[in-house]
Amino acid sequence: MQLSLPTQALQTALDQVSRAAAPKVGNNAYAGILLSAADNILEIQATDYQVSVRVRTPATVTEPGETVVLAAYLPELIKKLPAGTVEIQSQTGASTLLIRAGRSENEMVTGVAGEFPHLDELDHPQQFTLPSDQLRDMYSLTQFAVAGDNQRPIFSGILLEAGERAARMVATDTHRLALREVALADALAQPVRLVIPERVLADVVRLLPTNEPVDVAISWHRDYVAFEFAGVYFMSNLIAGEFPDYERVFPARFDAKAVIDRREFTAALERAALISRNMAYKTVTLKWGDDSVEISATSAEVGSTEETLSVNYEGEALEIVFNCFYLLDILKRSTGDKITLHILQNGPMLVEQENDPDYRYVVTPMRGH
Known about the structure:
Radius of gyration: 26 Å
CATH class of the largest domain: Alpha Beta
Shape: elongated
Structural class: alpha+beta
Number of helices: 6
Number of strands: 24
Low-confidence stretches: none
């Protein structure tokens, strides 16, 4: 195998696949990165059993071939090479890879390419396409509601649901739920519900180009999902199990409705968070009534805070306790001047955006605190 390409292009491609390489170092093929060169394309693959990534980048290929190198070392070496062009060469039957850049010449021990678990694209998949900016937006507006522990694996993932003319991402930790919906350019023949590990979507979003939008083809078959865009093919296991019927979480009725200035509400809650952030449940009390809301928090160790904001309020007087940071999470991702809150005395509160009906959030009160 013999090829050359810009050092920066190789570094970028290795960065894209390196997270999928098994973290341990040794002769295990899963701890390696597969380099395959042919037809003026360098193909790089890595896997950790659950996630597999393949990246293709243009290269000048003089002699086709493939080899495996340790994932723990090659990306670090390439980062430290001088800018310009890097030349890569291995001899048939040799156990080393020669890497030259400028006056730097390096040899790395190689493995057997035939032992590497090559990535096979999904067989007869179904698929739909989303613009990269929409996929990034859907993830960023829902991922914060994912459960932080793995005791219930289904809640460590994000539901991607698509059908007819819309796609949704939904995340919940059972205390709050975030939903983002976008329109699809083409209707799906059959609706689909995929529960994707949050860390997988985080990696996919991290790999999306930031200099220009691209189309992301999302495909699935049996227990796998794949994302393909800009020379990247990213495949992962899905989370097994049934995601809860999230539509039932949205209340059908409300005791009150409040429209409040988003920036003022955020600032007041941030002040309350200074008091409650070290408390077990991080609580803040909201007292609603007479076109006002009183926001208060008390800690025996820190002190207390209380302030009143003007609101447009309809309904009976209510006093409800929430996790302060659950409210701040949604407010910091909101964009309008106003925010609308649909309130229940003994049930979840629905948060709606001023000019974006496709982004909804539900948060449950802290009972008994």
